[in-house]
Design brief:
Number of strands of chain B: 12
Order of helices and strands of chain A: EEEEEEEEEEE
Strand content of chain B: over 45%
Order of helices and strands of chain B: EEEEEEEEEEEE
Strand content of chain A: over 45%
Structural class of chain A: mainly beta
Distance between the termini of chain B: 41 Å
Number of helices of chain B: 0
Structural class of chain B: mainly beta
Largest sheet of chain A: 7 strands, mixed
Oligomer: heterodimer
């Protein structure tokens, strides 16, 4: 099993450009999450999904959109990137009945110039 | 809303020293508690978790944590640290209901000197 994978690993954008980060999991997990990690702030939840076709906002959703068309994939989109979105983005997934233990992907380091 | 506080932002220890990292949470209901570790350049890995039962939980690599409900604390301990324990440590909490997402503390950077 690959677990949770993320593409790309690194990306540099100019202000105003758009991009999509892809998260894939092969553990048949119902729940999937996108977090961002910033120095001194831990990880903060951007959006999450409790199942295929459903998404919901987390703590810091502004400027991001998500989609979960297939159970194994969770996409995070930036429609118009801003320097404040420079961060490391982590995807995670969890199985409904395992008391919320989450498995994390390797992260995507995004720089917005 | 739940929150997590990690008061030690940066800890420097010598090898073989004992470690205790503080974690306090605020949430009135039933919680699940976690410690994750992030080694340099790597993704988060689960160290240990508490759901119910014995408040002293043991994790991987010799780490343990004690849940003290009356103090809303879940401190991480290790009797003797190694250079390879250099990493950032995150305490996290989630509840049994709702979105089940983790609320993280701000992290503690541990540096172990040989």
């Amino acid at each position: 099993n690959a677990g949770v994978t993320q593409t790309p690993k690194f990306r540099v954008l100019k202000t105003g450009q758009s991009m999509t980060l892809l998260c894939a999991q092969d553990m048949n997990h119902e729940y999937m999450y996108w977090y961002r990690q910033d120095p001194g702030m831990g990880l903060r939840l951007i959006h999450y999904s409790v199942g295929e076709g459903t998404t919901a906002k987390g703590e810091v959703p502004d400027g991001y959109n998500v989609s979960r068309l297939k159970k194994q994939n969770f996409l995070l989109g930036l429609e118009s990137a801003a320097p404040s979105q420079t961060s490391v983005y982590f995807c995670a997934s969890s199985y409904l009945l395992t008391y919320n233990e989450q498995f994390f992907g390797p992260g995507t380091r995004l720089t917005v110039l | 809303a739940q929150s997590v506080s990690q008061h030690n932002h940066h800890v420097i220890l010598s090898e073989a020293a004992s470690l205790e990292l503080g974690c306090n949470y605020s949430y009135g209901g039933t919680v699940n508690l976690f410690w994750y570790v992030q080694y340099p350049g790597q993704h988060l890995q689960l160290l240990l978790k508490y759901f119910s039962g014995d408040p002293l939980v043991k994790g991987i690599k010799g780490f343990e944590a004690e849940f003290i409900k009356s103090k809303f604390s879940f401190n991480l301990r290790k009797p003797s640290v190694q250079w390879s324990d250099t990493a950032e440590y995150f305490c996290a909490v989630t509840s049994d209901t709702g979105r089940r997402a983790l609320t993280f503390g701000s992290g503690t950077r541990l540096q172990v000197q040989p």
